[in-house]
Amino acid sequence: MTTAFSGFPDISISTERLVLRPFEEADVPAYAEMMSDEHVTAWTDAPQPYTEAHARAWITELAPAERAEGRGIAFAVTEFLTQRLVGIVRLRNTDWRVRSSELSYVVAPWARGEGYASEAALATAQWLFHDQQFERLELRTAADNTASQQVAQKIGCISEGVLRGAWIARVKDGGDPLGGWLDTRTDLIVWSLLPEDLEGAGDQLAESGFTAFSDWN
Question: What Å distances lie between residue 202 and 36, 70, 126, 132, CA to CA?
Fold first, then answer.
């Protein structure tokens, strides 16, 4: 097994319903709108308000630099039929010697409840393990973010423990007439996924009513 840094390729991954591809400048408006959603504000550290300037800097500068330097890769998740932006799946904090990376995901409000996060996350994990020969994938979910925890469980992740007070979530400030946000400290649940954990994960998603898939480009 090679341990030398090689960086992530500039590729697209296809499933039955989705295409995971590099971000394009045309995605700026939809990405900015998605990252401004209240659910995203609550559980991520994205700047708020999230403007198109933020989106453009991420898409045209920060994400390409992250891939080029081998620190991670970000996929724009789009519907196969409509090409509409469903969300983002991102690998970060990549360790090429250990062959390990951290997975995170965000889904647009209109696309939630369709199993898209699980489908995209599982496709990314399959590609990372099979094509890139990685050995470990890690996820961290806020203790109260049950939707994200359900995604981790559906793709076969194992809960490894709790990092106490390790994250700052945001809650609506009820006393602010302008609808501001307050920071609140919370725990993080650490999940892991190893290549052997993927066995049966696609079947489990299919049984839950989600589309199974096996190919990537």
Answer: 31, 28, 10, 19
**pTM summary value:** 0.87
Do residues 193 and 136 make contact, with C-beta atoms less than 8 angstroms apart?
A: yes
Outline where DSSP puts E strands in 49-108. Answer: 73-79, 85-95, 100-107
Q: Which residues contact residue 206 at a Cβ distance below 8 angstroms, ignoring those fewer than 6 apart?
A: 212
pLDDT by residue, tens only, the chain of 217 residues? 445 567 899 999 999 999 999 999 999 999 999 999 999 999 999 998 999 999 999 999 999 999 999 999 999 999 999 999 999 999 999 999 999 999 999 999 999 999 999 999 999 999 999 999 999 999 999 999 999 999 999 999 999 999 999 999 999 876 666 668 899 999 999 999 999 998 766 555 444 333 333 333 2
Alpha carbons within 13 angstroms on the beta-carbon side of residue 100 total 11
**Whole-number Å distance between alpha carbons of 108 and 50:** 14
Closest CA to 113 of 184, 16, 210, 44: 210
At residue 14's C-alpha, the angle toward residues 12 and 15, to 5°, is 155
Distance CA 185, CA 189 (A): 13
In order of 115, 155, 197, 198, 212, the CA distances from 192 in angstroms are 20, 10, 9, 11, 21
Closest CA to 65 of 133, 25, 8: 8
Cα separation, 178 vs 183, whole angstroms = 16
